[in-house]
Design brief:
The protein is an alpha/beta fold. Helices cover about 40% and strands about 25% of the residues. It contains nine helices and twelve strands. A six-stranded mixed sheet has the order 2-1-3-8-7-6, sandwiched between helices. Strands 10-11-9-12 form a four-stranded antiparallel sheet, with helices on one face. Strands 4-5 form a two-stranded antiparallel sheet. A hairpin with a 6-residue loop joins strand 7 and strand 8. Helix 2 packs parallel to helix 7 and helix 3 crosses helix 4. The chain starts with a strand and ends with a strand.
């Protein structure tokens, strides 16, 4: 099961806001032994959002999607998800009840009687219009729910939350705990790395290829660093994957570096 992330909003691409969702979703998944397979950023362009969702809804992936599920003119995600599936938007009865609870709470705090038929409150109900067949995701912050959709592939699902971290993060955590607890820590994983100083990747490539050929359940990674005032030029070189193969693969890497007379330091 692969997990993906879609972050929607012009404000992210323009730099008006700095994305905080990627590191948080990565953290939520990592805490549960789940890797993030991919991530995409999209602006508030309905055609692009629809095309992206049509493609990802046809996959087997579990996809978290943030942003654009409000009811202002620049919010398009709900409509685009419906278009991607070829289904209408409908007012979800549970979402309607939760939104009206929020309306009543706000009126109570202001010391007035809630008027559910007021134009602004009727407009708020649009936030509960989801693609037909959706299930709601509870929002502990203000009760305005997100929604989940099954993928057209028959496997996996998409889970939509607002762009506000204070809402999206507990909603995504609820999704993980409620729907994917059986996937937690199913795949054993290990990683070892070292810093190789003043080396060229082209010199190390044959060694990396030999390690992956001998240990097929391991991936080799190589992250060059040009150096700065704190550390010399180096390559962050390592192996990751099946724990039973990571150990011997890392030993092979060290021995190969010794044969190349490379200077290295094992990372802690």
């Amino acid at each position: 099961m692969a997990f993906g992330l879609i972050i929607i909003g012009d404000e992210i691409l323009s730099g008006r806001r700095i994305d905080k969702h990627f590191p948080k979703v990565l953290e939520l998944l990592s805490q549960r032994g789940l890797p993030l397979a991919w991530a995409e950023y999209i602006g508030d362009d309905p055609a692009r959002i629809t095309a992206t969702l049509k493609r990802t809804l046809a996959s087997d992936d579990v996809v978290f999607c943030t942003g654009g599920i409000g009811a202002t003119p620049d919010d398009h995600t709900r409509q685009c998800a419906a278009a991607a599936l070829g289904v209408p938007l409908v007012l979800h009865p549970e979402a309607k009840a939760k939104i009206q609870e929020r309306i009543a709470d706000t009126a109570r705090e202001a010391g007035v009687t809630p008027n559910f038929d007021a134009p602004d409150n009727l407009h708020r109900l649009k936030m509960g219009e989801f693609p037909q067949g959706a299930a709601i995701i509870p929002n502990p912050y203000n009760k305005i729910p997100g929604f989940s959709l099954a993928n057209t592939s028959g496997t996996g699902a998409h889970h939509f939350a607002p762009g506000f971290p204070v809402m999206a993060w507990p909603m995504f955590e609820w999704v993980l705990e409620t729907h994917y607890a059986d996937q937690f820590h199913r795949q054993a994983w290990a990683e070892r790395s070292m810093l190789v100083f003043e080396a060229m990747e082209s010199t190390l490539t044959p060694l990396m290829e030999a390690i992956e050929a001998k240990y097929p359940l391991v991936k080799v990674f190589s992250l060059p660093h040009v150096g700065d005032e704190k550390i010399r030029r180096h390559i962050d070189l390592g192996v990751k994957g099946d724990p039973e193969q990571v150990g011997p693969a890392f030993e092979m890497m060290q021995e190969g570096l010794r044969q190349l007379h490379a200077e290295f330091e094992i990372a802690t």
